[in-house]
Design a protein that fits this description.
single chain, 284 residues, alpha/beta, Defensin A-like, Rossmann fold, five-stranded parallel sheet, three-stranded antiparallel sheet, 20% strand, binds cobalamin
């Protein structure tokens, strides 16, 4: 990363900012600040010199100058995969990038989650999970739900006070709504990994609309209808309100983050806190 003083490296026409307020950065490959980037893409043409020339022209049009094709490989008879290495002159003012929002709730241990549920509900919290649509990628939802968990954390099945119903892959919205009703679910957890033609967005909207229609008098998630939670690696560009859900989780989510969110969203604020004499048994 390079930090440059204002005005010295920015392209002509960049408005001058007060000294010290900008933190201009550019990518680098070989030496700091050299502007080198690596990019990969596929073109729908057979591999060969002509394909490489097309890749170079595309790279040039995308602002890489100079550029070189460092790898090209046939992907079947009619497609070629490329890796291109080249120089860009674009800059980013890092100071203008807002810091991401902090998590609005504390990360709880499984013992704290169990205790909070026992205190507030006096029954197990019910979670129904599924991959909907044609999506068969169950690894993500299993990472959150299955006892073996993810990233060294146990999944929600491990939590004594959470009852998990994992419906698996390719569940229809109708089946999900029906099961959530039958289980009297507190939360519905949906995974969407396939994003071709924005299937993840369409499926999620369809799912949310079905739950809103099924519970027309609900005030909010957990107040008259199950909390609607969706997760997957490519929800970066959308907000909850766009999809009609209560919460979106992205790549790298851990089970504890989800369990802590469920406590935060579904239980009264006073439910968490250290165990007292009234709390009979602690969790192992
Ligand atoms: C494993 C895999 C498969 C396995 C799935 C096995 C299974 N039971 O899940 C199999 C071989 C079946 C498969 C099939 C296909 N796959 Co596939 N697959 C993958 C692969 C390699 C890894 C996915 C994975 O397991 N990630 C690990 C998990 C832990 O990560 P995750 O899903 O992101 O989950 C985390 C978070 O997102 C979040 N999360 C996820 N869901 C939820 C839900 C909730 C409620 C919460 C809170 C959090 C949460 O928490 C998780 C833990 O942090 C990816 C490529 C990749 N590297 O990602 C391609 C990939 C997803 N597959 C792809 C494709 C195209 C397919 C097929 C269409 C291939 C084909 N032509 O047949 C089929 C589709 C099958 C179908 N009907 O869905 C594409 C999707 C492209 C796109 N734009 O949509 C990918 C990206 C590969 C690629 N680059 O082309 N696949």
């Amino acid at each position: 990363m390079t930090v440059e003083s204002p005005g010295t490296q920015a392209p002509p026409g960049t408005p001058a900012d007060p000294a010290g307020t900008r933190q201009v950065i550019r990518p680098y490959g070989d030496t700091t600040g050299d502007g080198m980037v690596q990019m990969s893409f596929t073109l729908p043409v057979p591999a060969g010199k002509r394909a490489d020339a097309a890749a170079l022209q595309l790279a040039g049009k995308m602002g890489l100058d100079p550029a070189s094709v460092v790898h090209s490989k046939a992907m079947g008879p009619d497609f070629t995969f490329f890796i291109v290495y080249g120089k860009v002159r674009h800059l980013v003012d890092y100071a203008s990038i807002p810091a991401p929002e902090e998590r609005a709730y504390p990360l709880l241990t499984s013992q704290e989650v169990n205790l909070a549920i026992r205190r507030a509900l006096n029954r197990r919290l019910v979670v129904v999970g599924a991959c909907i649509g044609t999506d068969a990628h169950t690894v993500g939802i299993d990472a959150i739900l299955n006892v073996k968990g993810f990233a060294g954390e146990k999944g929600l099945e491990y939590y004594r006070e959470i009852h998990v119903v994992n419906m698996g892959a390719q569940v229809t919205v109708e089946e999900l709504v029906e099961r959530a009703k039958a289980e009297d679910a507190d939360a519905v957890l949906v995974s969407q990994v396939v994003t071709q033609r924005n299937a993840h967005l369409h499926n999620t909207k369809q799912m949310a609309a079905a739950f809103h229609a099924e519970y027309p008098t609900a005030v909010a998630g957990g107040m008259g209808r199950p909390l609607l939670v969706v997760g997957g690696p490519r929800f970066d560009t959308v907000a909850e309100a766009d999809l009609g859900v209560d919460r979106i989780f992205g790549k790298g989510t851990t089970p504890a983050e989800v369990a802590s969110y469920l406590v935060h969203a579904l239980l009264p604020a006073g439910a968490t806190g250290p165990a007292g004499p009234a709390d009979q048994e602690d969790e192992s």
